Amino acid sequence: MVRVLLTIGTTHRPATDLGYLLVKHPDRVHEFDLPTGRAFVCFPEADEARCTAALVLEVAAPDRSATPDGFTLGRFVNDRPYAASSLLAAALNKTFRTAMLGTSKDRPELAATAIPLEIRIPVLRCRGGADLADRLFAPLGWVVTATAIPLDVEHPEWGRSSYVDLALSGTLRLADALHQLYVLLPVLDDAKHYWVSTDEVDKLVRAGEGWLAGHPERELIVSRYLAHRRSLSEPALERLAESDDRVVTDSVDAASPEDADEDAPSLAVVRREAVLRALRESGAQRVLDLGCGPGALLVSLLEDRRYTELVGVDVASRALAVAARRLRLDRPGAISERDRQRVRLIQSALTYRDARLAGYDAAVLMEVIEHVDEARLPDLVRAVFGAARPATVIVTTPNAEYNARYPSLAAGAMRHADHRFEWTRSQFGDWADSVALAHGYSVTVAAVGVVDAAVGAPTQMAVFNTTGVGE
Fold first, then answer.
1. What is the pLDDT of residues 141-175, one digit of tens each?
2. What confidence score (pLDDT) does residue 193 get?
3. Strand pairing partners for 118?
4. N or C: which end of the chain has fewer CB within 10 A?
5. Could you give the CA distance from residue 110 to residue 270 in angstroms, rounded to a whole number?
6. Helix (H) / strand (E) containing 125
7. What start-end ranges are recorded for coiled-coil regions in this protein (predicted)?
8. End residue of a domain, out of 194, 218, 248
9. Based on the domain organization, do 153 and 266 belong to the same domain?
10. Are residues 296 and 417 in the same domain?
11. Nearest to 270 by CA among 287, 252, 283
């Protein structure tokens, strides 16, 4: 019988701790019954220096005695017994369910720690080829080696097949790696072996927590995972967009996790409310949301009639498409014509001068500057404070000192995979003062979120003002 195979290896010492994380003894073969066949977990190597777990999936043949409604030949003739697909993702969820929770009774600290991992899937159906595999896994921190498998090794002129030999190496939490595989295997397969219902949205959001919201291929992943059903993908994208700028534990706004109020609003909400207050105090009516992303702030601004013109700006067309859906600009009649005329979306890079952005009352850079290389920040400053020159500029950014209060963040780690830097309070204050002095603004720096006596608040905000609105 042909078997589908996936291996997970580590060189963490002692490497045999992988057995504790997977809740599988390396000296045994573990067998699981699945609706589609059987799965086995074994350890082809297990010593102090290196340990590898193998998941082997045997796909059962369909019942040929019954002719189902809507009979298709594909039910009986397919590549499921031979290539990794959504069946392997389901087997992962069954065999490593405890490991996917990110907990370990015997090694609790290790379960929360990033360790060196090597994952190999020798035959993976990949509709999009090796390039797509790299686009999906590389942004998550993996070193990707995806080798296209030829249709026939004896006839190379026939070209490549739709299968790749995939190898991943990286330093991640095991639970994070398993969740990524659980989502991305059926995405690469671009098919599922079961009916996709509304429950799949919840599964996707849960499995994608902490990595999917900020993934550059987020829309493709969501669309494929949910079988290209727009009725499912739109709400999924909206839920992911809401968490796009959240850190792993940003719903914990208290000084320590033990004292956290579970009913407190998330940091994303607290931050947005702080920005909205600053805008109201400025008296602005025409506002730029620079780096608007999926449009969470624009939605709140559109609800307030004091703002007569709103412009969302982002370099990513995908983010603007999500923002358009959230604002319901993509559906005729979904909002009033008056509101439709109040808001528009522009694709533009904030490090270049853009004449379309000049002359506005206020501009917001909410959790934006940390996504720009520090070497390019002077270009952004010249484009925003020099060329566009709104009367008020509001900037928020993470406080790097507060990261020590997030237990899921390793020492020195940043809150988002795409952050190029995160500043301390003194670094941000010095930058704000220098920008204000160079471009004729006054500036006030404030804390956003619950203030810790030792490390400050999770977010810091600077409000820059010229002498009056509209100058």
1. 899 999 888 876 777 767 677 788 999 999 998 99
2. 60
3. 9, 169
4. N
5. 32
6. strand 115-125
7. none
8. 194
9. no
10. yes
11. 252
